[in-house]
Here is the input.
Amino acid sequence: MADRLPTPNPNPDGRGTAQPIFLLGDVGQLRRRDEQVVTRGKVVAIYYMLKVNGILRHGRSPLWNDPPLEYLHGSGQVIPGLEKALEGRRVGESFKVVLPPEEAYGPRRRELQQKVPIDDLRAALGLKKIEEGLVFQGRTEDGRVETFMVTEVLEDEGMALVDANHPLAGMELVFEVDVVGIREPTEEEARRGFVAPHPAGSGTHGRRGWVHRPGADLSDRDELHDFEDWEEGH
Here is the structure.
């Protein structure tokens, strides 16, 4: 099939000018281009840098040999402000967006902070020492899994201050984003309603439903939906 056929298009002076008309193949190309737009139900792949107060906090970059971050658009896998900024974007687009706390991880809530006996925490996590920055998960009385961070160790009181707020709650976030892929979800992804993050390494399971994740902070490999792993515990 020929790609295009000329058709006369008379000019005011009466002379004809060959103008192309689109055939079925061209329409298919246009449709494929439309499919490369970020819309609800598409799996989107991005590279990004996240800065807070001018300091790089997290990111994924091909320069670091990172895989892109994949998520199912419209499923709530990424924070609201970022998902809104990605809507309608195309593969190859790069952009910067500044998100207030209300469109990111929300305000910091004092009621999500509590003191826990250090000895109880050691026993629950199977650790000899509790340090600031320790991140762990625990199951609440109503069965939900919450993620906590030890923000202060009060040795004199024998207590540790643990915080269930997201580490970036109450902060303004600056994202620099590159859209590198858009595709249809697999049947499994569509059924689950989310795209599974790349494996982030193993944690150490303690007692009483707690899970200890080594390290003083969550790495970018744990971050999908706002430190990918963190949100799964909320």
Observations:
- The chain is about 15% helix and 35% strand.
- The helical segments are 24-35, 80-86, 118-125, 187-192, 229-232.
